[in-house]
Amino acid sequence: DLEIGNENGVQQWVGLRFQDVAIPSGSTINSATVRFTGTETDVGNLVIPIRGELSLDAEEFADETPLTGRDLTKSTVMWDIDPWFPGDSGPNTTTVDLSSIVQEIIDQDGWPTGGPMVFLVQNDPLDTSERLAVSFDGNPAQAAELVIDFTPPGMVLVGDVNLDGLVN
Fold first, then answer.
1. Which residues pair with 131 in a beta bridge?
2. How many angstroms separate the Cα of 158 from the Cα of each of 10, 23, 84, 122, 147?
3. Which of these, 51, 53, 47, 54, lies nearest to 77 by C-alpha position?
4. In this predicted structure, what is the pLDDT of residue 160?
5. Residue 111 CB contacts under 8 Å (≥ 6 apart), including other chains
6. What is d(CA 164, CA 44) in angstroms, rounded to the nearest whole number?
7. What is the structure's pLDDT at 102?
8. What span, in angstroms and rounded, lies between the C-alpha atoms of 3 and 7?
9. What are the Cα distances from residue 25, in Å, to 33, 67, 103, 159?
10. pTM, entire model
11. What are phi and psi of 32, to 5 degrees?
12. How far is 137 from 142, CA to CA, in rounded Å?
């Protein structure tokens, strides 16, 4: 399980690494979220910060690469997490918009289309709640899913901008 929040008063970090993120450099990120699948019920209050790793080739997680030693994005998004229930994988388990974090990551000089992307979640040890989600190792089919809507560079979107019935 991914234990997001308070685990017996210990300040802990949870890392999520997504491979092969096929976003071309220079794209505009319209929206980005991570959807989890809950494994336990916990209805207490929980507000957590989410940041990204500012890296062109974010390392896999291992004992040799602690989460706390990574370069983090300046952009931080606060997520006020609603209660989860076992098997829940809907709006309550979907993060707020992470587009500012994703945009900062892909705006780095040399961002490789198809590079890995890491998000880090840190809890406050004063929080009294946690949310447990399925990990990739626990069940790949129910693991966290990164969903990004983007506009590639050079793409021009057309539509009825002034709502006069004509494509502008």
1. 4
2. 51, 21, 40, 41, 24
3. 51
4. 65
5. 23, 25, 56, 105
6. 49
7. 98
8. 7
9. 19, 25, 10, 25
10. 0.86
11. -155, 135
12. 10
Closest CA to 86 of 54, 132, 137: 132
Do residues 13 and 139 lie in contact, with contact meaning Cβ atoms separated by under 8 Å? no
Helices (H) and strands (E) in the chain, counts: 1, 8
- Candidates 147, 135, 129, 154; CA nearest to 31 is 147
Ramachandran category for residue 95: left, alpha or beta (phi over 0 → left; psi -120 to 50 → alpha) = beta
Q: Distance (Å, rounded) from C-alpha 24 to C-alpha 41?
A: 39
Q: Chunked in runs of 10, what are the mean pLDDT values of the chain (168 residues)?
A: 76 88 95 94 83 93 75 94 87 95 97 95 76 88 94 74 68
162 token code pair: 């002034």
Q: CA neighbours within 13 Å on the CB side: how many for 108?
A: 23
The pair of structure tokens assigned to 7 is 């685990």
- Rounded to 10 degrees, the C-alpha dihedral 58/62/66/67 comes to 50
In whole angstroms, give the CA distance from residue 131 to residue 70: 24
Place of tokens 């006069």: 164
Tokens, residue 12:
């802990």
Judge whether 42 and 131 are in contact, CB under 8 Å.
yes
103 sits in which H/E element: helix 99-106
CA 65 remoteness from chain centre: 19
